[in-house]
Amino acid sequence: MKRSLLRRLPLVGLLAAVCLASTAPGAAATAPPAPGSGPVLRELARSASPLDDTRALDRLVGRAEVVGIGEATHSSGEFFTAKHRIFEHLVEERGFTTFALEANWSTGLLVDRWVTTGEGDIERIMRDEFQESYRLWNTEEYLDLFRWMRRHNVEHPERKVRFMGNDLGYAGPNLFDTVTAYVGRHHPGLLPRFRELYRDSRPTGEVEAWMTGYLDKPLAERRRMSEEVNLALALLERQKPGTRAGAREAHAWAVQHARAVAQVGTEFAHDVATPEGLAAAMLYRDRIMAENTAWWQRRTGHRMVLSAHNGHVAYETFKPDQYPRTQGAFLRDLLGRGYVTIGASFGQGSFNAHDTGAPGEPLRVFTVGPQAPGGAAHTLDRVAGGPYLLDLRRTGPAARAWLAEPREVRHIGTAYPWPGTTPSVRLSAAYDGLIHFPVVTAARLR
User: What is the mean pLDDT of residues 238-249?
Assistant: First the structure.
């Protein structure tokens, strides 16, 4: 790993770059492609449905409470647009009401306030909040999604949709202010103590500068900051919510906001300079993203679409030594059959990523050609002429055997080029369904 990139990337970007560019140890050699006229391709073709065939999507989703939808790059427009269209259909036809994103909890609160009330400026929120590793979310495609959510809420005030961020790369000042405002109203005697415990962790200045500077702090300082924000969480958890109408609900949300602050502090207290510390940080991050998602689902009762990289929504990890367990595996533990995951793949095309070969690692567009024989996309490209959905649980025996074998797939995170961006994956073990795009194009960065 380049030392310059290690210095530049905040912890979340470092984790994304490492964990999404790995080859699973112990995986079998990449299996040969299915013959063009063989049973594998015929069975896959029979099982595939065009993306606009919502009946196939509905069968795959079933009664799931959370549907994880992945992406094979962090910034190709087709992945983002497909998630928008799927969410729109599930809202209108299946009663879904929350879109969750691999974004910070505090960012999610700002976006949610805009889509539910119109308060704030969504373009400014995106510009200010989607920085550093989250810069890849500041796109026209996500702006289109947020505007659709806002229009839906204006037209259907009785059935509003909501937005949440389940990640822990940054806790914005709005999060600290929300917690201290609650403490000031309900437990004013504790307010000075909360301000003291939050003093060093409450960010100042630009999001990017704060995130990139966090890991520059000595490990001992980061661990002290983590101890302080966790003490604040424990203190709030011990308080009684009161008996007035709504008091219990207000307390539950305040505790969750304080928990989100503590999660950020805990994540950055890991010693990521060691392999063991980096693996522990990765494990903690995916566990917390799952727990935040499950907390929201249980608290609100909403059915949810969860958007993240393939490496997070999948059931199986692609590199156990560095990336011990995935968000998808944790969600399956928490929700059982209430969680369904849909991966994404592509044959060729373009995406945005940090260029690790250029000074400063700027964001730019990369383009890759068709995958070589042996890779999963080499066969998947021949299943249909356009994008399609494949229910991996409903295929013939030859296709099931093919899907169960480890095959190289493209999984590109925040940085490129990067060693091992074609991990070997058992598709049917990793996902319930798969969306395949023969061609993708770079998302439209704003």
Answer: 94
